[in-house]
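To: structure subgroup
Subject: Chain for Friday's discussion

All,

I'm putting the inputs and outputs inline so they're searchable in the archive.
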Amino acid sequence: MPNSIIIVGAGPNLGAAVARRFGREGLAVGLVSRNEEKLTALATELTGQGIDAAHAAADIRDADGLSAAITSLAQRLGPVEVLEYSPLPAREFMKPILETSVDDVRGPLEFSVLGAVAAVTTVVKPMLERGSGTILFTTGGAAINPYPLRAGVGISFAAEVAYARMLHDELADRGIHVGHTAIAGRIAPGADHEPDEIAEVLWRHHTERSRFQVRIGID
């Protein structure tokens, strides 16, 4: 049974590009997001390209549901060699700072931090037992340069990166590489960043394992 990559927040742009890039290298691809219909379409497309792909729908803000989805995909596809965490935040997470309440911050933190913790804790023990693995976090530029008009993601992305950095420091000598990619701008064909180009950055993160953070479009 081959090793697999699990993509949390898989969609038609970055998620699809990451699936193709890692799938070409022989990894089976597990897709996780909330939309069952879109997941089915993407998995069918990848299968048609000769990539072993499967999907499991889960709400990222439901930690138990997310963990169960990842576990089911690992059982179907093989040991998780790579976890890629890049869910796209909801628009309601982006209120101005002075209009942001406790409830407005709770959603982004569930999405970017609690979901990340649920995903990582599901895969990290088997990685430690094997002594190998890669965990990749991909966020918007607000993780580096928080913007007061989009307060929720500025707070939650910063917390996500703090979590990722602590993982990196703890796991680097135990065979597991943890990396963060911060991207300012939209990822889509013809937009600020081509999905295939970002997928290549993530592939290098996985193979070169030389640094924790890569910044794209950010000074």
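Points worth raising on Friday:
The domain at 4-216 is CATH 3.40.50.720 (Rossmann fold).
The mean pLDDT is 95.

D.
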